[in-house]
Write a structure and sequence with these properties.
GO terms for molecular function: 5-amino-6-(5-phosphoribosylamino)uracil reductase activity. The chain is of the alpha/beta class. It is 26% helix and 20% strand. It has one domain: Dihydrofolate Reductase, subunit A (3-Layer(aba) Sandwich).
């Protein structure tokens, strides 16, 4: 196999223990997932999990890959966010409900000038969501429904009493535009954005150059089969990222955070 001359110049660093382990309740762990200070526009963080062979689900759901450490990090990121942005298929598949925030984290959020509980914002072109689902009935704050011009009136009629429905179309009235959706969130001072997918929505953010960072948990599992990747859109881009941190736990999970180079 041909090897370019540049391969000889590569340098590697062996990752290892650097100091005492950090417990999941230690506030220092939250510092690893702090958003940039003084945001005036949306900063979009993706949080996904994948097996070591690239599968984004096991048995059709992400929960099949998760462990205790991943759930702790998942909650930490939710507590840090102003809003949680997801695609409608993820809400249906994972049977989403509203965000649960313990008392101590509510105080921390208040100290940062945030609302006690972050709302969930759903991107849905069709607006086809069940108003009786847990997503609407088990929540302290009404969700946001980001839909398109073509279905806005119908979505407002069906969901307007249980959610805030927003027309987030751009130039196409039959599609939700990512940039327009983020502008709608920014108008509501929801700058710290956390997206939990799904794969198609994450891919759209990547293709539109709207993803600022990706926190990827690598589960020490092989799943094989036809599990999707964490991003499964039709377009392809090459976005350069830099590693911000890599953590691990006793179960062998890796917690990576990559930030887009600017």
């Amino acid at each position: 196999m041909f090897m370019p001359d540049t391969a000889a110049a590569a340098q590697f660093t062996v990752l290892g223990t650097d100091g005492a382990p950090i417990d999941s309740a230690d506030r220092r762990l939250a510092d690893f997932y702090a958003y940039p200070a003084d945001l005036q526009t949306c900063w979009v963080r993706g949080n996904m999990i994948a097996s070591i062979d690239g599968g984004a689900t096991a048995g059709g759901k992400t929960a099949g890959l998760a462990g205790p450490g991943d759930r702790s990090v998942f909650e930490l990121m939710r507590y840090a966010a102003d809003v949680i942005l997801v695609g409608a298929s993820t809400v249906r598949t994972e049977n989403y409900s509203g965000t649960q925030v313990p008392v101590a984290e509510r105080r921390n959020r208040q100290a940062r000038g945030q609302a006690e509980v972050p709302p969930i914002a759903v991107v849905t072109r069709s607006g086809n969501l069940d108003p009786g689902a847990l997503f609407f009935t088990r929540t302290e704050v009404p969700p946001l429904i980001l839909t398109c011009t073509a279905t806005y009136a119908d979505a407002q009629r069906r969901l307007g009493t249980v959610a805030e429905v927003i027309d987030a179309s751009g130039s196409r009235p039959d599609a939700v535009d990512g940039l327009t959706a983020l502008r709608a969130l920014a108008e509501r001072k929801l700058f710290r954005v956390l997206t939990e997918g799904g794969p198609l929505f994450l891919s759209e953010l990547i293709e539109d150059d709207l993803l600022d960072e990706l926190c990827l948990t690598v589960a020490p599992l092989l799943v094989g089969g036809r599990a999707p990747r964490i991003a499964t859109g039709s377009g392809e881009v090459l976005t350069r990222m830099r590693p911000a941190h890599v953590l691990t736990d006793d179960d062998g999970y890796l917690y990576t955070r990559y930030v887009r180079l600017r």
